[in-house]
Design goal:
Blueprint: H1 7-24, H2 36-45, H3 63-74, H4 78-98, H5 101-112, E1 117-120, E2 136-140, E3 143-153, E4 161-168, E5 177-183, E6 189-191, E7 206-216, H6 227-263, E8 265-266, E9 269-270, H7 275-300, H8 305-330, H9 340-353, H10 358-370
Parallel strand pairs: 1-4, 2-4
Antiparallel strand pairs: 2-3, 3-7, 4-5, 6-7, 8-9
């Protein structure tokens, strides 16, 4: 079995690595928004259209290529990696897989980076699918009327389109869901203030509120019957890309630890020569290599809910371990804002806690493992 990347994939990794080192690296301070010039450069590089079909203005690469881009960028900027992943991943994948031709055409602008998309699934009182969704879609003639609140929406104030999931009014089942594609200027859609977060501040996480939001029937993605399938697709895609993000964070933490240990001198020699430090570096490297195989497999098996949940669980555990060990190697300097490991320490929590925390992932995996027993 050949685990090496194809020539196309390796070229994408190399070019992304150059961009990251030139434009994103050496960040040692927090900030709340990105320079529009940087976003334009990302758009021109085509990162938002990595897997978008060629006929819709994309590169037409495979899903592993998207995971590789997210991984590389997350080594130094997990927030930017998540922003790209949200637009290039679950939003476009749902539109291409389930959407009408009119909706698929919207991916041309998303792929070009001239528009950004995001998903609105979770709610203040609902952070896993076993809980009842309170955002309700009610049929009104040929239209739908949406009422409710969505929480923890990534890039909410800056997105141009939203993939919103709601429960169908008067349904006999708690998981009768319907998915809509909604423009940011839609009447009845309101934003809450951006939530202050420990890390990944540029993601501008916020709530969306829908108040008698009247949507035309062509806002429905696919058909009413496809709602549950679309939700599963969104979750699997998001888990896989958050796993790639966490993998990148782990690798970034290892690189920072190696660099620091090579120049930090104690007792007359670089601390990288000390066995205690070498042991921590070895543990980090071994965990990263094991996780990489699982994340890449989940990417190649795009849509496999169990694999993507496993990848996110293990990758986030590894990111947490690596960031902690890297911080230990930095010692007191790891607590200082002048060192990149400090913000990476906070940013890694995003992948771990958003879109199902570790215990929720374990429950999802256990359900998949025991369903046939």
């Amino acid at each position: 079995m050949d685990f090496s990347l194809s020539e196309e994939q390796q070229m994408l990794v190399d070019s992304t690595r150059i961009f990251v080192r030139e434009k994103l690296a050496n960040r040692t301070e927090s900030f709340n928004s990105y320079d529009p010039a940087l976003l334009n450069e990302i758009a021109n590089l085509g990162y938002c259209g990595v897997t978008t079909p060629v006929e819709y203005n994309g590169a037409g690469f495979d899903s592993l290529c998207l995971a590789l881009v997210v991984e590389e960028i997350a080594k130094v900027d997990p927030a930017m990696a998540a922003r790209i992943a949200e637009t290039a991943g679950p939003v476009q994948h749902a539109l291409i897989t389930f959407g009408s031709e009119q909706q698929k055409l919207i991916t041309e602008n998303l792929a070009a980076g001239t528009k950004w998309g995001t998903v609105a699934l979770w709610e203040p009182e609902m952070n896993q699918l076993t809980e009842k969704m309170c955002t309700i879609a009610k049929k009104s003639g040929d239209s739908w009327v949406l009422n409710g609140t969505k929480s923890h929406v990534i890039n909410a104030p800056n997105a141009d389109v939203y993939l919103v999931v709601a429960a169908i009014d008067n349904s006999d089942s708690d998981d009768s869901w319907i998915a809509f594609l909604i423009d940011k200027n839609q009447s009845g859609l309101h934003f809450n203030q951006v939530t202050a977060t420990a890390g990944t501040q540029p993601l501008s996480i916020s709530h969306l509120e829908f108040e008698n939001c009247k949507l035309p029937k062509n806002s429905v993605i696919g058909t009413v019957e496809l709602g549950k399938q679309i939700v599963k697709s969104i979750i699997a895609d998001t888990h896989m890309l958050l796993a790639a993000n966490a993998l990148g964070v782990a690798e970034g933490a290892l690189e920072l630890a190696e660099e620091y240990a090579s120049v930090r001198v104690q007792f007359g020699k670089a601390i990288v020569s000390f066995e205690a430090i070498r042991g921590m570096l070895a543990d980090m490297a071994a965990h990263i290599e094991a996780v990489r195989l699982l994340v890449y497999r989940a990417a190649e098996k795009r849509g496999d809910g169990k694999l993507s949940a496993m990848a996110k669980l293990v990758a986030c555990n590894t990111a947490s371990l690596c960031v902690h060990k890297s911080n230990q190697i930095h010692g007191g300097y790891g607590y200082m804002r002048d060192y990149a490991i400090e913000f990476l320490y906070r940013d890694q929590l995003f992948s771990e806690l958003f879109w199902n925390n570790p215990n929720q992932l374990r429950s999802e995996i256990a359900d998949a493992v025991t369903q046939n027993s």
